[in-house]
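Record 1 of the preview.
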Amino acid sequence: QVQVVESGGGLVQAGGSLRLSCTASGLTFDDYAMGWFRQAPGKQREGVSCIRWSGIITNYLDSVKGRFTISRDNAKNTVYLQMNSLKPEDTAMYYCAAGDYCSNSRANYWGQGTQVTVSS
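->
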């Protein structure tokens, strides 16, 4: 049974940082691209960033470029999202997902999400 579990969300002041972690089990981690997505209240889910097993990264959001960094540790079956200089508009539920390829909307397996709230 595949499980994808996010952690690291929370409440932070604008300008602060958070690091999200996502651990996947029940699958061959190296076979999957890992992505971070987010969904703010009243908005559609959007892709944030994706990293292939090889470490090649695709970023989907211009608004987070230079502030968010995705990385993965294949030995730990874990992907990270380092978020710096957070802004109130980054407030959203953040989801991790595993997919056969990088996509800004699709994935095979999804986590339950971790809430990130940025106060002004």
